[in-house]
Amino acid sequence: MVEKGFIKLTDYREYPVDVMKKRSSEFYGEMKRRRTVRHFSDQPIPRSIIEDCLCTASTAPSGANQQPWSFVVVSDITFKRQIREAAEKTERKFYTGKATQNWVEDLKHLGTDFNKPFLETAPYLIVIFSQLYSFLPDGDKKKHYYVLESVGIATGMLITAIHHAGLVALTYTPNKMRFLNNILSRPSNEKPFMILVVGYPSEDAIVPAISKKLLGDIVTFI
Ligand SMILES: Cc1cc2nc3c(=O)[nH]c(=O)nc-3n(C[C@H](O)[C@H](O)[C@H](O)COP(=O)(O)O)c2cc1C
Hints:
Helix content: 40-55%
Shape: globular
Structural class: alpha+beta
Radius of gyration: 20 Å
Number of helices: 8
Mean pLDDT: 96
Number of strands: 6
Strand order of the largest sheet: 1-2-6-5
Bound molecules: flavin mononucleotide
Order of helices and strands: HHEHHHEEEHEHEH
Largest sheet: 4 strands, antiparallel
């Protein structure tokens, strides 16, 4: 007899240890091929693939299961152009004065500047908003818990799903993002979290030669 409000855990699958070992190492092999790409082709992608990836993101854990996220999928060139114009305006200010010397120095190896052509070239911009709070039926504000953590996890799962599908993504965070509320008509309780630029890499795409920290440098087993 299961307590009211609960169901039996039936979806869990246990694997023998050798199978687990294979699955975990194969998944690592798959994930370590993921790279942030900044050069996109304009090759279209069926919308159903993006929908599946968003379904994956929607399964993410969240504080009190509030799922404090909204995803706006932009493929319309008029909106993409508006986003590019607004982003380049704020990025120009950032790169030509607002950014600290250290920040510019830290970004140098990425080869980025205020030009963001991928915002028009890539077939999809998934604009992710975090819902800082929601509204109760009487109009009062309802507090949301661990919003940044929750939206960060859902975004990570979305990036993973996009990579798994065989596409590439750029986690793009313009220095100021509130312009996204105006362009996409989002309410003020929603704060732009990032733009995930999604598509195929261009044929001549290059990526910075970077490395990841070793396990021994980031993990402590106690
Ligand atoms: C929160 C966050 C914000 C980022 N913002 C930008 C950005 O605005 N522009 C950009 O070109 N890359 C951005 N990146 C991508 C990082 O530069 C990239 O993940 C990092 O250099 C490691 O490269 P990799 O993703 O290929 O492993 C961002 C990544 C994260 C996680």
